[in-house]
Amino acid sequence: MYWRLSNLYFWFFALLGGLLPYWSLYLEGQGYSYLQIATLMATIQLTKIVAPSVWGYLGDRTGQRVRLVRLGAVSGSVFFAGVFLDPEFLGLLLVMLVFTFFWNAILPLYEVITLRALGERRDKYGRIRLWGSVGFIGAVALVGALLEQVRIQYLPWLLLPVFAGIAVSSFLVPSEKGERQAPAPRGSLKSVVLQPAVITFFAMNFLLQVSHGAYYTFFSIHLEQHGYGKLAIGLLWSLGVIAEIGLFLVMHRFFRRFSVRAIVLCALVLTMMRWVMIAEFTTVLSILIVAQLLHAASYGALHAVSVQYIHGFFGRHHHGQGQALYSGLTFGAGGALGAWMSGFLVDGFSTSAAFWGGAVAMAIAIAVTWRGLQPPPVHR
């Protein structure tokens, strides 16, 4: 059971490790402008606005989550193959929109499958989910090393084995009995979403993902412009994920010693500092390493807190919809807007300007959070 559940996490995040650090470099090598690169990279986030809600609804209504995961895995792999047709900009945009729509369907559904399969043994979830981080780090390092030997144009070919791994592992997922979810009380979701504390929570996370737009779109290009090779770029990306893993292992201690509000505000300030470090001190490796270690704050701490907020505010009836809103409004809408805004800043000024834009977004997030964030209610 352990390996059958952890297998898909490994391959899913391995693909993310092969895409995020290097896809923008691939697009640059294909001759696309910075605005076109930003638009294409934004599609990875853009489909998160719709995909989690659509696939989550289908999973809840049919109870056939395993079949839907397999459909997403196979269909995503098939549609990604459109990259090999050498489409123009609009063609590639369509390929990425369709591919990511199916790919972004996998994880939300699989999280439910994993937790239900574990049952009373949910304390083992961390050990299973850890293999996703292992897959990400391994793919970043391996693809980076291979790209030192071959041209960036071969990146889609390097990703093919990972797609095969996702497709195969989806058929190793334990089957579950079809179970339809009981409908939630009418109108109650609206009353939850319109709470001032919930609005503040979503605004904070939206701005957080806007600030990450430059990182996920232009960090690799920024490093390459400052003389870093493909392997070094990959290792710096991996360092951020390693820091994230380390924080997850000790996060429970921070929750015992500090309030949620204090953790969030500290993480937001550290995130703002991170973007300034990357913008101004890229050539100073020691400072860049510190900036990457701060990924533990900008993603790890804030995601761990957000899981508690969703669980507390949305409760049992709306947990799935709360997760879909969190993914769509923050990672989806915020991430896409951040990618596009960073594209304008890079096109008009420089990659450093895009990271300064992220720092400004974080300053606004700090002000919004200081004014309106409240602790999540006790689990109900």
TrEMBL record:
Provide the protein's localization.
Cell inner membrane
Enumerate the transmembrane spans.
7-26, 32-56, 68-85, 91-110, 130-148, 154-173, 193-211, 231-251, 258-277, 283-302, 323-341, 353-373
* SUPFAM superfamilies reported for this sequence: MFS general substrate transporter
Principal subcellular localisation of the protein: membrane
Q: Which UniProt keywords apply?
A: Cell inner membrane, Cell membrane, Membrane, Transmembrane, Transmembrane helix, Transport
Q: Does the keyword Nucleus apply?
A: no
Q: Tell me if RNA-binding is a UniProt keyword of this record.
A: no
Please give, as recorded in its UniProt entry, the membrane topology of this protein.
Multi-pass membrane protein
Q: Which residues form the Major facilitator superfamily associated domain?
A: 2-355
Q: Which InterPro entries match?
A: HcaT-like, MFS_assoc_dom, MFS_trans_sf
In Swiss-Prot or TrEMBL terms, this protein is called: MFS transporter
